[in-house]
Amino acid sequence: MKIRIGIGILVFFTLMALVGPLLLPADPAATSDAGLQGPSAEHWLGTTQTGQDVLTQIVHGSRVSMGVGVLSAVIATVFAIAVGLVGGYFGGAVDEVLSVLTNIFLVLPALPLIIVLAGYLPQRGVASVAVVIAVTGWAWGARVLRAQTLSVRRRDFVEAARAAGEGPFRVVFFEIMPVLLPVIATSFLATVVGAILAEAGLSFLGLADLSTVSWGSMLYFAQNGQALLIGAWWWFVPPGLCIALIGTGLALVNFGLDEIANPRLRTIRQPRRPKLATAIPEEARS
Amino acid sequence: MRFLTRRLGFYLLTAWAAVTLNFLIPRMMPGDPVDLLVARLKGNVDPAAIEAMKRAFGISDAGLWTQYVDYLGNLFRGELGRSITFFPTEVSTVVADSLPWTIGLVGVATLISYVVGTSLGVLMAWKRGTWLDGVLPAATFLHAVPYFWVALVLVFVFGSTLQWFPGSRAYGLEVTPGFTWEFVASVGYHATLPAVTIVLASMADRILGMRNVMVTTLGEDYVVMAEAKGLTSRRVMWAYAARNAILPNITSFALSLGFVVGGSVLTEIVFSYPGIGSMLLKGVENEDFPLMQGIFLVISLAVLVANLLADLAYVILDPRTRQ
């Protein structure tokens, strides 16, 4: 159930980013005389101070926000795979160095680092922002993948591949990596959310490309346009809600997967927890 | 003890990495920050100021290694250079003025969030199948909500619309700073919304994390044993299950601290709170590179110290690490 709702949310937003701009082809930055209007039949989500249609901005902005999220998650995941798998497989000094590097990036506060890096960027285009976010977003994935690699590397098929004379890089990327694909997928999705949040934060601070419409830049202009004082809730509620919903969708998918792995975490059960009930294994009870 | 020495070594290494990163970033990025600045000011800078800025960055024609040694030497003397935004104030003075605000706000908010979130997680695991399960979807949603958006919504509802709480600044214009009841009350009143933002946005992780570990712990033999002995369920819940389930939660809490700090940077900016986050943004907006770097360093070191404290707590709570 959780997984289904989660996937539903994710599919909805993916479609919004892919198909939405085709259905609402109007320029999201186009201004009009009808400024600061509440939701109406003409403007479903109202308009901004300069008369831009909020719904059009949300739909077009989803491309930028999710695009930066996916792009930077791809970069971060490739890096996480390289560091995690190589460290986990080779062990020894290589692993020691890569682990310390991973842990350092895990402990350093990501957002301040992103802000500082963005501060030095001469041009804040979509691609450079994605790279900056990826720099701080790979460590968690690398740590998870390293742990998984450690558990896989002594399995028979890996030993067999090694015995057959396959080179270490072939073993790592063609024998071990395919087995870890589900883990890679989960960590990739989690990284996407982190990156969407980071992009939104950066745009909100005015440190990303403000000439393109994204959910973060909408929030930036809403705050600077006094939307809070004027009471124009339709201007700043939808972008934040979209970000939070994508995150919720993804968390639901992840929790759902966790519950399949660990049935105890499920919520649907008998109304009262009888004493000692936990002593009986879940499978035996049903 | 070995555990602590190892961790201490790791934090020293990380501190060194943060310091070195701070040294390398401006030098790796295209363009010289001072040239960038001078170009921005369209040449209206007198040569002495340019020289001062170059000194502040430690930019010289000397080799990279000499610059690095000079930079480290300055750091050890606590010299972070001069801020350009607040010229000629030293960066360390700007930091010293803004840091207490942040530590007070983030410290109190994080503490509340941790205590409430952990307790809720324990209760939710204990009372699975009751109405408390309804908190789960809400927590899942809060877990993904951006801090600054929570802040915007709170300012809108409780600041502008209902006007219950002030939506900006750290204390009222009518009070003068000092150890008076008026001032302290004003500070508390102004900190309410920012603190609620941080608590709301960071609590969900604690709830979900604690619930999951607690549910697993509840299946352990010693918990069943405690129940079978006829101990009160309160005792079983807190003294047996929660005490053990809290250990992994402390580690994950320490790791998520960087996230809380990042979120509070954004929160401060929404509330124009005079903490280190607002200063960081000012530094970036004004291309005040010494200020940016100094603040990043201080934030990183603060997170490292907080992590070290969490490790200490871990050692105190888990006797196995003391062997």
Write a structural description.
- The complex is a heterodimer of chains A (286) and B (323).
- Helix content of chain A is 71%, strand content 0%.
- Chain A has 286 residues and is mainly alpha-helical.
- Chain A has one domain: MetI-like (MetI-like fold, Orthogonal Bundle).
- Residues 269-286 of chain A have low confidence and may be disordered.
- Chain B is 75% helix and 0% strand.
- At the A-B interface, helix 4, helix 5, helix 10, helix 11 and helix 13 of A face helix 1, helix 6, helix 7, helix 8 and helix 9 of B.
- Sheet-strand content of chain B, in percent, reads under 5%
Number of helices of chain A: 14
Helical run tally of chain B: 12
Please trace the helix and strand order of chain A, writing H or E for each element: HHHHHHHHHHHHHH
Task: Let me know the number of strands of chain A.
Answer: 0
What name is given to the CATH topology of chain A?
Answer: MetI-like fold
Helices and strands of chain B, in order, run as HHHHHHHHHHHH
Average pLDDT metric of chain A: 82
Cα distance spanning the termini of chain A: 19 Å
Strand % of chain A is under 5%
What value does the Rg of chain A take, in angstroms?
23 Å
| Main sheet specs of chain B | none
Average pLDDT of chain B works out at: 82
Please state the second-level CATH architecture of chain A.
Answer: Orthogonal Bundle
Write down the overall geometry of chain B.
globular
Keywords (chain A): Cell membrane, Membrane, Transmembrane, Transmembrane helix, Transport
InterPro entries (chain A): BP-dependent_transpt_permease, MetI-like, MetI-like_sf
Protein name (chain A): Peptide/nickel transport system permease protein
Pfam families (chain A): BPD_transp_1 (PF00528)
